[in-house]
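Forwarding these from the shared drive since the link keeps breaking.
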Amino acid sequence: MIWRILLSVALALAPGVSHAECECLWQGSFDDVQAETDLVVAAEVIAIKGNSIDLDALQLLRGTLPPVELRVWLEYEEYCRPELGTFPLGSRWVMALDKIESKVSGGFNPNTPNYSYGRIDDYAISNCGGYWLKWEGDAVTGNLVDAPRWDHEPKMTPVLLELIAAYVAGDVSSDALLAASREDPALRELRLNTRAFLRGDEE
């Protein structure tokens, strides 16, 4: 009998169990939302702890990196953030992040210390827009521009990371991103092969 009571308590306090539903409006694709965030990075997930991930920022697109680890807090209670499983260890992403600047009442549970709203000066990522793009090789995919709401993996042609960086820097338009995301894959492959040949990567 006692073990059943303990099991019920453990399940009630279990990390990842939502006690309220997330409710938010879709804020737009990456091209719409990134400018309103504090930090945009191309990074690799190097550690997972509780409902947070640590990133190795391989390329800073905008903002200032923290002096210590770059920690991003994910789904917790009713806060509209992506699930932890969205970002596996070793995966690479372009992320538009918001800095956590104040404590939130009820944001820390001593019974689950590794699961919380997040620490001040760490970062959080929203689920309510195209706040992340999957990065593989030299290109990214995701809800980049003019994509369906709530679809974080729409069908599209991968777009070069260097083009994303240029957009964040204000050097190219969202129209250029849209054109690249709708480019014929065969033409893109030909262009990449030509670039590699000119660099001397191929015989």
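-- next protein --
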Amino acid sequence: MPHQTDMPDGSQTNGQRLKRLRMRRRWDQRKLAEASGYSLSAVRKFEQGHRSLDRADVILAFSKALDCHPTEITGQPYTPPDSDRDGQAALASVGAVRRALLRHGRPARPTGQEAAGVDLNTLRERVAAANGHRQGASLTKLGDLLPALLRDLQVSVDVYAGDRRREAYDLLASGYECAMQYLYKLGRSSDATLATERVLWSAEQTEDPLRVLSARWYDAGEFLSIGEHDEAGAIIDGALSTLGAMRADSPEKVSLTGAFHLKASLNHARATDSEAAERHLKKAQKQAELLGHDRNDYELQFGPTNCAIWSVSLPVEMGRGREAVRRAELVTRALPDQYAPERRSHHYIDVGRAYYYNGQHDEAFEAFVKAERLAPQATRMHAGVRETTHTMLHATRRTTLFEFGMRLGVV
């Protein structure tokens, strides 16, 4: 059997990577336990693969103790196995999308043909198609569209002026959001962060206060993902204050307010403040009741369905398996079939993790397979799915679970 350090990084557990990072600092397990706040027994179980190291708050605690980025523990980005042709195809456009992001803010210097071909109606249709692939979890198709689309959007903001230029910036911000989600789902976190910065800048050029706030929703997520809860909270609180000061309760305002309360609930859940997390969830649910239906303002889905999905995510984030399973069984039955595959797949990932925390490994595996059917590449690239599957494989070599692990590239 190959030595741990000779194994492909994607086939290692988070615990094995944690051990490697600990040894790099010349720490023993006791020192890591003291620095992270976890027990020596817990550190040993994580490193040996007896306990799944998949919860964000735990990973963040170790990354802060070791002064490393969380992805150094999760191993992202992953490279799909050669057998996963769809996964390989999804990655094919990463380099071209990255180049388009790097060109942001530079003079587009369009050719005469490019300048003459700019048409906002056509661009609007192309952005809508990209968002359709994004919500449909079609990462390969999204990646195929993005490089040329981003180039044409960058040309459009150079060509137009006045209101039409502001509209072009709105479309550009949406294009960058698609790029951000494409890169994030493929585990390219640093490139996704770059895309988020482009979203913010472009949204500000629209001079639409709600459009700017919708971009800050993603900005808060960037800080949340690295455990900077105070910074994420400051962005969220600022947005909620701005929204609260607006007089008219338009559907867009209500929807954004609810979305920020959901983001606040996640921020508090990862900061292990369960009371604040539930408080913000209830506030989001009140906004959803005001709307009465699901909306997709600025491509931020919000409404009763989204609140129901997040009600499962929060106890999962806090490792409360029993509560998460209880909520999941109610939510899953009511989940509309027409709801975006991307969101439904993430729900089933949360359901799988909930079952795992509750000791129901067969049910966890079945939920992961449902998520994979809806969003193959995003599910196989999901850090929590990979780590939990690794840990379940440590306990059993069931054929179907082993085959799933092979599709993930963890065995």
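Residues 162-185 form the longest helix (24 residues). The CA atoms of residues 217 and 260 lie 7 Å apart.

- D.
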